[in-house]
Write a structure and sequence with these properties.
Helicase, Ruva Protein, domain 3; Phosphatidylinositol Transfer Protein Sec14p; 2 domains; 13 helices; globular; Phosphatidylinositol/phosphatidylcholine transfer protein SFH2-like; CRAL/TRIO_N_dom; CRAL-TRIO_dom_sf
């Protein structure tokens, strides 16, 4: 790291030393003992502009205080049937770790329907997984591998992606904005697999709109991506939808224990039990109240809105043209090479 970067970190730290005590307390939940490394995340997100990074972090800390994010891991989604319905319609899980110790987060983009609960439950669930990753998973990985691990890799499964995904764009934009504003630079690489034509058509248009820093993180892999992913992780850490070509569905595998989206998977059992235990510790006598944990939904970032509108436009074009099959001239291997 160059001298200029080190100076930026020192300036940023000096500014943070001046913030009010409540902000310092919630910042501790963010950095988990590694303040400088987390300042770097916000500096990267603002192209190393100290003033902009400072504003971004202070806004994030205020958001956490106003929405009681520090307590969100003590706010279970109840009853269990509702939580299971959220898990079945918002497909996400931890399949293992890369060879470098980074958690491998699997996301079933194509088959997530987001139609079993209100927006607030999906936002609550998403933030809880973020917080569990940052406060439990990453500190555990840091201790296990003997070095600071502050990022993950994400494998996005596009199996089953349809034009009906249009109805999800608003919610996905909200979730993306929450991540961009409050959890910047937490993902090292995005691997996109099982790509249908509908994604490829949109990707060609959306890719130029992304910041170079973001584009460098995205790799579109051929097929289920198994061969490429095995270069960075062991077979046991592959998401179930990457384990063989033509697996057909990312929703459920033959063995529920291998399906990292399932509530029965060890990751979700640990997360579920952790949140319920935290709730008991916080309120040992009072019963757990039903109802979603409402978080202020952010105004989408202008760039994010532009990208969402572009995707919406492209999907409408495909719908009008009646696109429902893979064209013979589509060269996914070429697409992969351009992004790898």
């Amino acid at each position: 790291m160059g001298i200029a970067f080190e100076d930026a970190i020192k300036q940023f730290q000096a500014l943070m030393d001046e913030v009010d005590e409540p902000l310092k307390i919630t910042f501790q939940n963010i950095h988990q003992g590694y303040p400088a490394e987390n300042l770097v995340r916000f500096l990267k997100a603002r192209e190393w502009n100290v003033a902009k990074a400072h504003k971004m972090l202070v806004d994030c800390l205020n958001w956490r205080i106003q929405n009681e994010i520090d307590n969100i891991l003590a706010k279970p989604i109840v009853p269990t049937d509702l939580y299971r319905a959220v898990r079945d319609s918002q497909l996400i899980g931890l399949s293992g770790y890369s060879k470098e110790g980074l958690p491998v987060i699997a996301i079933g983009v194509g088959l997530s329907s987001f139609d079993k609960a209100s927006v607030h439950y999906y936002v609550q669930s998403h933030i809880q997984i973020n917080e569990y990753r940052d406060r439990v998973i990453l500190p555990h990985a840091t201790k296990k591998y003997g070095r600071h691990i502050g990022t993950c890799v994400k494998v996005l499964d596009m199996t089953g992606l349809k034009l009906s995904a249009l109805s999800q764009i608003k919610l996905l934009t909200v979730i993306s904005t929450i991540d961009d504003m409050n959890y910047p630079e937490k993902t090292d690489t995005y691997y996109i697999v099982n790509v249908p034509y509908i994604f490829s058509a949109c990707w060609k248009v959306v890719k130029p709109l992304l910041q170079e820093r973001t584009r460098r993180k995205i790799q579109v892999l051929q097929g289920c991506g198994k061969d490429e992913l095995l270069k960075i992780m062991d077979y046991a850490s592959l998401p179930h939808f990457c384990r063989r070509e033509g697996s057909g569905s990312s929703r459920h595998s033959a063995d529920g224990a291998d399906d990292c989206f399932s509530l029965d998977h060890v990751f979700h059992q640990q997360l579920y039990n952790y949140i319920n235990q935290q709730a008991m510790n916080l309120q040992p006598v009072a019963p757990i109240k039903m109802g979603s944990f409402h978080v202020d939904l952010p105004e989408p970032d202008p760039e994010g809105t532009k990208i969402a509108l572009t995707i919406e436009t492209e999907l409408h074009k495909l719908d009008r043209n009646g696109i429902n099959r893979l064209p013979s001239d589509l060269n996914l291997n070429s697409n992969r090479n351009q992004n790898g």
